[in-house]
Write a structure and sequence with these properties.
Layout (H helix, E strand, L loop, with lengths): L5 E13 L2 H7 L1 H21 L2 E5 L4 E6 L2 H18 L11 E13 L4 E2 L1 H12 L5 E4 H7 L8 E6 L8 E6 L30 H12 L3 E5 L6 H11 L8 E5 L9 H9 L9 H9 L5 E5 L5 H14 L4 E6 L8 E5 L5 H15 L9 H10 L4 H9 L6 H6 L4 H4 L14 H10 L3 H9 L9 H8 L6 H13 L4 E3 L4 E3 L2 H13 L3 H19 L8 H10 L1 H10 L6 H18 L3 H13 L8 H16 L3 H18 L2 H17 L3 H18 L2 H17 L3 H18 L2 H17 L3 H18 L2 H18 L2 H18 L5 H18 L1 H12 L3 H12 L6
Parallel strand pairs: 4-6, 9-12, 9-13, 10-11, 11-12
Antiparallel strand pairs: 1-3, 1-4, 2-3, 4-5, 6-8, 7-8, 14-15
Helix pairs in contact: 1-2, 2-3, 6-7, 8-9, 9-10, 11-12, 11-13, 17-19, 17-20, 18-19, 18-21, 21-23, 21-24, 24-25, 24-26, 25-26, 26-27, 26-28, 27-28, 28-29, 28-30, 29-30, 30-31, 30-32, 30-36, 31-32, 32-33, 32-34, 33-34, 33-38, 34-35, 34-36, 34-38, 35-36, 35-37, 35-38, 36-37
């Protein structure tokens, strides 16, 4: 038989190298080489004295074998102690310090003395885990020597080593006399944090926030809907604070755990804590961590809340130097817990994330001309990182524009997740399924019924809509709180409103469509907002106008949903027309005339709205008035004449009075002055007979407009004064402001610029406070005329351009009286500036936002410096 060329045996392996060798050589190569020679000589002496054999001393590394594990450890301790003593007084950056790893394992030793095998690899990687001047040992070696060699070792948990399949338990120690100044090497911190394979986009502010919170709290819970990035943020936080926890930072993944009672075992497995017979694992964990400075990252706690809360409390009470970070969709509710709601990505960071992940999926991907589509995708996916990543992965098979178009079916579209991720993180639907399945039956009912709301809701709205069939009104607040705690509902604390992220709402809407309570939920939503509009309507012409306009702003999307629900409602025709009537002043005030007219026409076209009754008459009036304000005088006449005809047929005097005034103004718009005066005089007479001061004020204002078109400014002024007295008595702020604007035009016509300026200052304050688009637009027009009167030609052109741009946006058209006022003044400015200069200034004005144009008007109205 031939002689064997190699043999395998269990032995103790020591691997060492110089910490920061490259840096030392660059700083002083001569001194470093001399120090390295001394270290090699020291190693040889200690290795030989402890029955070891030097295998290799190439470069700055050392490899040795020992017959006993104790000999290997004693050599390591002796070398580190001697090196520390020799470098005493030397600046830290010049010290020669070794990292030493020691392992007990199998090696294959060849006859020429060289060795290789798994054990050698482990020893070499343990060396890289050691701190400068320290020793890192494997669990087998530590267990074999701890009874024979005094060691102040600390357990560093189970850690992954490069090219080693399974994590191994390791121990760290520093020799007697080694530096104990509290300095801690980041790379040597024990941890099991996974290496991240994708870039961390944005979150700089969030990372700083959670770091500050962790600094002053021992239990920090990161909250948020699934896919918002809680896990990634907690891992980035853990990596940032590694150096603060000398006993390690440990990730405990709980997503796959089904039983809350097994949480202690999951943590113990990560920390390498053994369960003692007859003793709870939680007690063993508490004792193990009692004198340690460690950080636990407990990920995905929402389905194990009781177990996580109990363990967190026990550990924190027993281990005063340790801390815990949890990620969950709802808080643990443990005393001392600090919570942080992880926000969605802002649009800029969401765009970066999409672009980065899309480029990873398709290296040639460029945004180029698709910026709008990408922005739409990120916005509609609510800035949820996982949803954005799923969408970005789709660029392999779909153009960006197609992805954006198909987001209405997002749960079918976004299914191409990471195959190695948890199943619930591979598709968008599965992500929310996970949260939905954790809800009680009552919570599920409330959750899906909330999908009928658009743009948020109030507590009163939720109580009115969700409280039926197993859910009583008194419990809605509790369920809403639970859904908020579970990160499915977002509370907007500053407005006392709630909302669903669009992605979550789409999911809830699908669940609602599958349920038997869809029709009842829609009906309740429609009834609630019809009642809401009924309460709001009288407030839109009084002292509380600004407050109620803001309420309607907040509920605008819900009002549109209620309009659509009329298509399915039993009394849909009646409800639909009534809703358009109640909302007409709002659409006018907010410059949404085109929207208001479209909704009104849709309401009039519904089955049941064709009968010649009060419902149709009032709807036709709404359409006529909106058409008039938009300058569609012919359409306005047709609507209003039919409305008036029905009102006369049924003898409804309030409707007759309402239709007469805008019908007269529509005739004025078409320069039919005789017809205009006939209708306006009848409107004035009827309002006077009925004692309706509000309608009387409107009729007088319209007669003044007609009089102004006819050129009688003195009579028009008297009528405006009469109208203002009535509006002031009614407390109708917007009508007062309109009267002042009209009167100011007369004053400008008289050439009194200063009086006009003082009058317009009051209108400016009202326009700013009420946020009224019609007031603001009219103010720009009158200010353009005032600027022309003053000879401020460029400013007149700018304000005229701003008013024209607002008109194009809102659909609000100048009536004939206002056009007769402004046109000659604009012509004066055009003649003074010349066509080119006027066009430049006008275009500048068209580029102003509504707010910027109001600021421009405010500047014109400011007191002028004397002298």
């Amino acid at each position: 038989m031939a002689q064997r060329e190699s043999r395998q045996r269990l032995t103790a392996i020591l691997a060492a190298d110089v910490a920061g060798y490259t840096r030392l050589m660059a700083a002083d190569a001569g001194a470093t080489v001399a120090a390295l020679e001394e270290a090699r000589a020291l190693f040889r002496r200690e290795i030989e004295s402890h029955a070891g054999r030097v295998v290799d001393m190439a470069g700055d590394s050392v490899l040795a074998l020992f017959d006993s594990a104790a000999g290997a450890v004693q050599t390591a301790l002796a070398v580190q102690k001697a090196l520390e003593g020799r470098s005493a007084g030397t600046p830290d950056e010049q010290r020669m310090r070794m990292r030493i790893g020691v392992h007990l394992g199998d090696v294959i030793e060849k006859v020429d003395g060289s060795i290789y095998g798994h054990g050698v690899n482990v020893a070499a990687h343990l060396q890289s885990k050691a701190a400068p001047g320290g020793v890192c040992m494997s669990e087998p070696l530590y267990q074999s020597v701890k009874a024979h060699v005094p060691l102040a070792a600390r357990y560093a948990g189970r850690q992954r080593l490069k090219n080693v399949d399974e994590p191994i338990a390791i121990w760290q120690l520093a020799p007697e006399g080694a530096a104990q100044d509290g300095a801690h090497d980041r790379d040597a911190t024990p941890n099991n944090l996974p290496l991240q394979l994708t870039s961390f986009i944005g979150r700089k502010d969030e990372l700083a926030d959670v770091a500050k919170l962790l600094a002053r709290s021992r239990l920090l819970t990161l909250l948020g809907v699934g896919g918002i990035g809680k896990t990634r943020l907690s891992l980035e936080l853990a990596a940032q604070v590694l150096v603060e926890f000398v006993d390690g930072v440990w990730l405990v993944e709980l997503a796959t755990l089904a039983d809350a009672r097994l949480v202690p075992q999951a943590v113990a497995s990560v920390l390498g804590v053994k369960e003692a017979a007859g003793r709870p694992v939680a007690d063993a964990l508490a004792q193990h961590l009692s004198d340690r400075q460690a950080l636990l990252i407990m990920d995905n706690c929402e389905h194990l809340l009781q177990g996580c809360a109990e363990l967190a409390k026990q550990v924190l009470q027993a281990a005063p130097k340790s801390k815990i970070v949890t990620s969950s969709r709802e808080p643990l509710r443990v005393a001392g817990e600090t919570t942080y709601a992880v926000p969605a990505l802002p649009e800029s960071e969401a765009l970066r994330l999409f672009t980065d992940r899309a480029a990873a999926a398709v290296p040639t991907f460029r945004v180029n001309g698709h910026a709008a589509a990408v922005a739409s995708i990120c916005r509609r996916l609510d800035g949820i990182p996982l949803a954005i990543e799923l969408a970005a992965a789709r660029v392999r098979t779909l153009p960006v524009d197609a992805i954006a178009q198909r987001l209405n079916d997002r749960f079918r579209l976004l299914t191409s997740g990471d195959r190695t991720a948890l199943p619930r993180q591979q598709t968008l639907r599965a992500l929310i399924d996970w949260s939905y399945e954790l809800l009680s039956e009552a919570e599920r009912a409330v959750f899906r019924r909330l999908a009928v709301f658009a743009g948020g809701w109030t507590l009163e709205g939720a109580e009115a809509v969700a409280a039926f069939d197993g859910v009583d009104k008194a419990s809605v607040l509790e369920h809403l709180g639970e859904l908020t705690e579970k990160s499915l509902v977002v509370l907007e604390a500053d407005r006392a409103r709630y909302r669903l992220l669009e992605t979550v709402r789409e999911y809830a809407h699908e669940r609602l469509a599958e349920a038997a309570d869809l029709d009842e939920t829609r009906h309740r939503h429609l009834e609630f907002y019809l009642a809401f509009a009924q309460i709001a309507r009288p407030q839109l012409a009084g002292a509380k106008q600004g407050e109620w306009l803001a309420h309607l702003d907040a509920e605008r999307e819900n009002l549109l949903v209620a309009h659509l629900a009329c298509d399915h409602a039993v009394s849909g025709a009646e409800h639909g027309v009534k809703l358009t009537y109640l909302l007409r002043p709002y659409w006018i005030n907010r410059g949404l005339l085109g929207l208001g007219l479209r909704l009104t026409n849709e309401a009039l076209a519904r089955a049941g709205a064709q009968a010649r009754n009060v419902i149709r008459s009032s709807g036709l009036f709404d359409a006529g008035q909106l058409s008039y304000f938009m300058g569609r005088y012919g359409e306005a006449k047709r609507y209003l004449e039919e409305s008036l005809g029905i009102a006369r047929e049924i003898g409804d005097k309030p409707l007759i009075a309402a239709a007469l005034q805008p019908l007269g103004m529509a005739h004025l718009g078409e320069h039919e002055l005789q017809g205009a005066r006939r209708y306006l005089q009848e409107a004035w007479q009827l309002a006077k007979e009925r004692g309706d001061e509000r309608e009387l004020a409107a009729a007088i204002n319209s007669l003044a407009q007609l009089t102004r078109v006819e050129g009688d400014l003195q009579k028009a002024e008297a009528l405006y004064e009469e109208m203002l007295a009535l509006a002031s008595r009614l407390g109708d702020r917007e009508t007062v402001a309109i009267g002042v604007l009209n009167l100011a035009m007369v004053v400008v016509g008289h050439g009194d610029a200063e009086r006009a300026r003082l009058m317009l200052l009051g209108v400016l304050a009202e326009a700013q406070e009420l946020g009224s688009k019609p007031l603001g637009q009219s103010l720009m027009e009158v200010c353009a005329g005032l600027a022309s009167l003053r000879g401020q030609w460029a400013q007149a052109a700018r304000l005229y351009g701003a008013a024209e741009a607002q008109s194009a946006q809102t659909g609000l058209h100048r009536d004939p009286a206002d056009e007769a006022f402004l046109r000659p003044l604009v012509q004066r400015a055009l003649g003074a500036l010349g066509a080119d200069a006027f066009a430049v200034a006008e275009e500048d004005g068209r580029g102003l936002t509504h707010e910027a144009a109001i600021t421009e008007a405010a500047g014109l109205l400011a007191p002028r410096a004397s002298g």
